[in-house]
Amino acid sequence: MPGRLVVVSGGGTGIGKAIAATFAASGDRVVIIGRRREVLEKARSDIGEDRIHVMAADLRDPGQVERAGDRIAALGEVGVLVNNAGANATPPTDDSLHALSAAWRHDLDTNLLTAVLLTSALRDRLARPGGRVVVISSTAAQRGGTGAHSYGSYAAAKAGLHGWSLGLAKELGPAGITVNVLAPGYIAGTEIFGDTADGAFRSRKRDDTLVGRVGTPRDVAAAVDYLASPDAGYLTGQVIGLNGGAVLGR
Length: 250
Known about the structure:
The protein is of the alpha/beta class. It has eight helices and seven strands, in the order E-H-E-H-E-H-E-H-E-H-H-E-H-H-E.
């Protein structure tokens, strides 16, 4: 129902920004949370909604997440939590195991721990019944680390979200809270691929689909909007592909 409190991590750009705009347009109050306050403020200005609340925090830092959780709790009961924060794989700085370990720890913290910490901080504030948790993963979790994700850490972190989310769905289901994972394929207009997303790259991603086009942030926002709706109350504990048929269902 409109008027819920919605929390979107990584809400300043791309997919997160589109999700925040969709909920705000429906009359919900939306907290967008991420590391870069200036990016969040620009998103708030672009969306043009008084219902957007900006909260700057590094979600890899337990202390910052705890403080952010307290501030969010002061706003009221959380109807929807969208764990969207993440980043592409970090290449090791050299060939040593120390560099490999540092790169993997960074990527696991950025793509997996952020969701675990924020959800844990807000768990007791989720609406009961009717709360919704949506976790944004990636087809990399299903395909393995390839191409831009060849270091493996990104795919492993996203796959970790799947197992964690399915367990969370079991725990929260009796309270009437649903938990689902959305695994998008290539989505244009995001920061995750950076300068690697040239015309040839996008063409390959388009040709990889069955529908002949790449995804958009709006495609993801529309799917999240449904998963967060009252009509989706019987849908929980699922990993849902959103990839134009690039990865077929299993």
